[in-house]
Amino acid sequence: MLIATAPDMIAVVGSADRTQTWPADAELDISAYGGPPRPRVGRPAPLAVGLGALLLDEGGYTGPRLLQSVGHDEPLSACVELAAEVSASAARVGLLVMADGTARRTLKAPGYLDERAVPFDAEIQRAVSTGDLTALHGLDQTLARELMVTGWSALQVLAGTFCDREPDTKVLYADASFGVGYLVAVVMAAKEDPTEPGR
User: Fold this and answer.
1) 108, exposed or middle or buried, with CB in 10 Å at 0-12, 13-18, 19+?
2) pLDDT: which is higher, 33 or 179
3) Residue from 63, 50, 168, 136 nearest 98 by CA
4) I need a surface site. Which of 49, 92, 94, 188 has the fewest CB within 10 A?
5) By the 8 A CB rule, do 97 and 157 touch?
6) Is 140 helix (H, G, I), strand (E, B) or coil?
7) Share of the chain above pLDDT 90, in %
């Protein structure tokens, strides 16, 4: 769906150990995560960014791309600033945000069970499904660390991208496979209504 909108560029944003722009040919080294070895063309990218690049490749996208990691511990202000930089990198930027939710939803979860995980993921889902992305700025970063939310900083970049407008959203999937909160959604800039001046 993202590729079908024909953006001028697609930016993949994912949380990682540090904030960095990666070469456009960087890719996921799946063998590092137990997958079969594949011939590599570019240098390895962090998991979230590399997985996003792989999704673009599998979807047949061959246009310009920006691969951007954002450090797990970046403050909110730095994430919002990065959102502005990514948004300004082309006239029409498609954004592919790779951000895990909590990893403590069930007894079999990587971080075991924490009763705070379900409401935390529910707030992410509520914010995205209603288009109230600025509510993501209110997610507690310390609690996110305790719940093993590796995507907190990437979610802040997403929210920063839409801080001045309410998007049209559609949630395609929301569940806790393997005890980790996952949400797949389409978030589009709302089209302006030409009959309403000032919008």
Assistant:
1) exposed
2) 179
3) 50
4) 92
5) yes
6) coil
7) 73
**Cβ atoms of residues 160 and 153 within 8 Å:** no
List C-alpha distances in Å: 22 to 28, 72, 88, 92, 156: 12, 16, 17, 20, 19
Backbone angles phi, psi at 121, to 5 degrees: -65, -35
Q: What letter would DSSP give residue 32? A: G
Q: Across residues 176-196, what is the average pLDDT?
A: 77
Neighbours of 106 (CB within 10 A): 16
What CA–CA distances, in Å, run from 34 to 110, 111, 151, 188? 16, 20, 22, 35
3-state secondary structure of 14: strand
66 vs 137: CA distance, rounded Å = 23
Average pLDDT of the residues in 8-22: 95
Instruction: Tell which residue, 116, 117, 118, 13, has the closest CA to residue 70.
Output: 13
Mean pLDDT in residue range 87-93: 91
Q: What's the maximum distance between 2 C-alpha atoms anywhere in the chain?
A: 56
**Band of the pLDDT at 88, cuts 50, 70, 90?**
very high
Distance CA 156, CA 179 (A): 23
pLDDT of residue 150 exceeding 60: yes
- Give yes or no for a contact between 185 and 128, defined as CB atoms under 8 angstroms apart: yes
Is there a contact between 65 and 10 (Cβ–Cβ < 8 Å)?
A: yes
